[in-house]
Amino acid sequence: MEAQGRLCAEPGCPEPGEFRAPPLEGTGRVGDGPPPFRWLCLEHVRAFNSGYNFFKGMSPDEIHDAQRPFAGWERETRAFNATGGADRPPRWADFSDPLDAISARFRERMKDRAERKDGKPLSGKDREAMRTLALEIDADRMALRKRYSELVRRFHPDRNGGDRGHEAQLQEVIAAYQHLRSAPAFA
C-alpha cells in the first residue's frame, strides 16, 4: 500500500506510514471529535498490536462481565401479545391533522369499500366495473344505462371519425356494462 508521502509516526523511523493506529493517550484531540489516527510502518504497527490490551485497567470482575457470551443482552425486550407480536397501531384521535393529509388519504382508500345506501351488495368485480364506467357507488339502473351510452358514443369508431385507437376502452366499457347489467345491485 502506498503511504502517499506519510512517514511512520515513531520518532526516527524513515519507513512509510501505511497502517492506522490510535493516537497516544492525551495527544492530538481536536474539538469534540475523535483524535486523528497515527500512521505507522509495518514493524511499529505489529509492536503496537502485540502490546495492546483491551482489558488494561479493568478489575477481574469487569473482565469476566465483558467476556460473558450474553454480555450486552441484559436490557429488557418488548413483550409479545396475542395480536401476533405486533404493537397496536395508534388511534387516529391521537393525531392532529390540520392539513387533512391522513384523513383525505384514508377516505380515498375507503371510497372503494363504501356500501350502497340501499343496502344492495357489491362484489369486487362489481366495484371494478363501476370504476371502469366512472359510476358513483349509489348509481341506479338508469344512471348505468346513461353512462354506458355516453361512453359508447365517445369511444365507438363510427362516432369519432373512424379512429380505432379507443377500441380497447370500448371493449372494457361493454364488458363492464354486461357485468353490471346482471349484478344484484342493478336488478
Name a few traits of the molecule:
37% helix; two-stranded antiparallel sheet; 187 residues; Helix Hairpins; 3% strand; 2 domains; mainly alpha
Give a verbal description of the structure.
- With about 190 residues, the chain is mostly helical.
- The protein folds into two domains: about 1-75, no CATH class; about 115-185, Helix Hairpins (Orthogonal Bundle).
- Helix content is about 35%, strand content about 5%.
- The longest helix has 15 residues, at about 140-155.
Q: For the residues shown, what is the average pLDDT? A: 82
**Major sheet, described briefly?**
2 strands, antiparallel
List the domain count as a whole number: 2
Approximate shape: elongated
Distance between the termini: 82 Å
Q: Got a strand count?
A: 2
DSSP helical segment count: 6
Secondary-structure class:
mainly alpha
Gyration radius from CA atoms, angstroms: 37 Å
Strand arrangement, major sheet: 1-2
**Strand-and-helix sequence, N→C?**
EEHHHHHH
Strand content: under 5%
Helix share bin: 25-40%
Unreliable parts? none
Chart the SSEs and their pairings:
Blueprint (H helix, E strand, L loop, with lengths): L18 E3 L16 E3 L1 H10 L8 H8 L33 H11 L12 H10 L7 H15 L11 H15 L6
Antiparallel strand pairs: 1-2
Helix pairs in contact: 4-6, 5-6
Task: Summarize the structure in short.
This protein is mainly alpha-helical and 187 residues long. The chain has helices at 42-51, 60-67, 101-111, 124-133, 141-155, 167-181; strands at residues 19-21, 38-40.
